[in-house]
Amino acid sequence: MPSVDSLERDWGTRWRPSEEKTYFSTRKIIVNEVRRRAQLDGLAEGVVARQMDEQWGFSSLD
Question: Any idea where the Transcription activator GCR1-like domain is (predicted)?
Answer without folding.
Answer: 1-54
